[in-house]
Amino acid sequence: MTVTVVNHVTLDGVTQAPARPDEDTRGGFSNGGWSVPYGDDVMSAAMGERMARTPRGGGGLLLGRRTYLDFAAVWPNRTDNPFTEVLNKTQKYVASTTLREPLPWQNSTLIQDTETAVAELKRERDLTVLGSGALVQSLMRAGLIDEYLLMIHPLVLGDGRRLFPDGSPHTALKLVGCKPTTTGVIIATYRPTPP
Which domains does the chain have, with CATH numbers? Predict the structure, then answer.
């Protein structure tokens, strides 16, 4: 089974607050919502295909605390988006040492020993990580990521939290799929390769 990281990223590696201006202003970040102008049917179809595979194959979402709380505040009550039902029904595993059960969003389970729990879950099901930068870093260090599905935006922000910050583990990646969108975003799928 696989752990796949799905993230929007700028050319300079920023992943912070792609969807809304107020999504994540840590560090004084003022460029939130940067991915929205680049959405198109190609990207929607790619995300729809990925999201449809998650619950159908018995997979689940793996989210860090910050991403989970943001999603739980937005998605359960949305009626204007085709992903709402899928996100609500999909089993969500939440990596956090500060949250306590019961978690507020249906089908959510807290995991605290992240590396051990993910290694065990990975034996049984595919997991998709959305956002969750700190969690991605932890999983990278543990060698638990099997695939990256990155929407690479033709944009340089110059500041913000990056997917691969300084100190990230040396990781060679093999490109296994690539599709351009009509707005210049490259949807690229990479898999780690042995050093």
Answer: 9-17+42-161 (3.40.430.10)
